[in-house]
Design brief:
This protein has 13 helices and two strands; from the N terminus they run H-H-H-H-H-H-E-H-H-H-H-E-H-H-H. It has about 300 residues and is mostly helical. Helix 3 packs antiparallel against helix 10, helix 3 crosses helix 11 (about 235-245) and helix 12 (about 260-275) packs antiparallel against helix 13 (about 285-310). It starts with a helix and ends with a helix.
Length: about 300
């Protein structure tokens, strides 16, 4: 129970919010608006999965929003050229993996701080995208939106894809040696090295994986609209980091649970529509989200101090 106290606390807060909405604003649970809200969060969930692994490994990547934007433009241009969606998806993921590999090489290979590296690459990709695309939207062929399916079926496909990915990643982190190695490197890289683990390889791997997942998320995002917005990834890195922190991932690495991240994302994503349905001014959203994140960080700090005292 104590091991999952943070995750259970966040889940309890989410359930409480949903109960309040069920009593005061039952329209919140109408099927089509609910599906639309859940679908809109699928790219953020996929990126949050990758971001969680990076943070558990005691690193950070604030360039993922820019990577997402680049991948979205790559996917949009290829889709507009008439290439099959399978090719579009692979190209987008390859572009993301390449950008992640650059971050990973600079961090793991050269030993540079990840916050500095990813700040630099964030600005680089942002400016490159601005110069290349100049803010122009990309019009997509009719068959791209919702994979050519009816809207509701397309939404269910996106949600199912994100949940299956989350489930597989959570299982792998718990049951595969590679997942345990990520925790080991985040806990103590030198001890992991002495135990025969390659910390540099693990660090490079989580950055590449995050980039590839950004490419997947970008592709799943472009199918939700008839146009591609080159600025679509703005703020995505903050959303992914916030979901991870609120969901119980330790900011100093070595600890975290992907199911907690899932609940954390749902809680943060529910605040804005909940305010609308509860007739509260929308400008309170950022303040409430900030308070939730602050409480999560404070709780993590208190937990770390107690653990250190023992």
């Amino acid at each position: 129970m104590g091991k999952y106290f943070r995750e259970l606390s966040v889940a309890a807060a989410l359930v409480l919010l949903l109960v309040v909405l069920a009593g005061i604003a039952p329209a919140f649970f109408e099927l089509q608006p609910l599906l639309s809200r859940l679908t809109a969060q699928t790219p953020a969930l996929i990126v949050a999965v990758g971001m969680t692994l990076v943070i558990i490994c005691r690193q950070i990547d604030i360039s993922v929003g820019s990577q997402f934007g680049v991948c979205a433009v790559v996917a949009g241009l290829l889709a507009a050229a008439g290439l099959p969606l399978s090719v579009v998806l692979l190209a987008s993921m390859a572009a993301g993996a390449a950008m992640g590999a650059l971050n990973g090489w600079l961090v793991a290979g050269l030993g540079l701080p990840s916050i500095v590296v990813t700040l630099a690459t964030m600005v680089t990709w942002q400016e490159a995208l601005r110069l290349f695309q100049q803010g122009k939207f990309i019009n997509l062929p009719a068959g791209v939106q919702w994979f050519g399916l009816a809207q509701q079926r397309g939404q269910l496909t996106l949600i199912a894809t994100a949940v299956v990915l989350l489930t597989c990643a959570a299982w792998a982190m718990k049951n595969l040696a590679a997942g345990r190695h990520v925790y080991a490197v985040g806990t103590d890289a030198e001890a992991a090295r002495l135990a025969g683990i390659n910390p540099r390889g693990i660090t490079l791997g989580v950055f590449i994986l995050l980039g590839a997942l950004a490419g997947l998320a970008a592709t799943l995002n472009i199918v939700q609209s008839p146009q591609v917005d080159p600025k679509a990834g703005g703020g995505l890195e903050l959303k992914a980091i916030a979901a991870a922190v609120v969901g119980g991932v330790a900011v100093n690495g070595g600890r975290g649970n992907l199911w907690g991240v899932f609940v954390g994302l749902l809680l943060l994503a529910t605040i804005n529509p909940a305010l609308t349905y509860l007739h509260v001014e929308a400008y309170w959203e950022k303040a409430i989200q900030g308070l939730v994140i602050l409480l999560a960080v404070v709780a993590d700090g208190i937990r770390s101090r107690k653990g250190g005292a023992k």
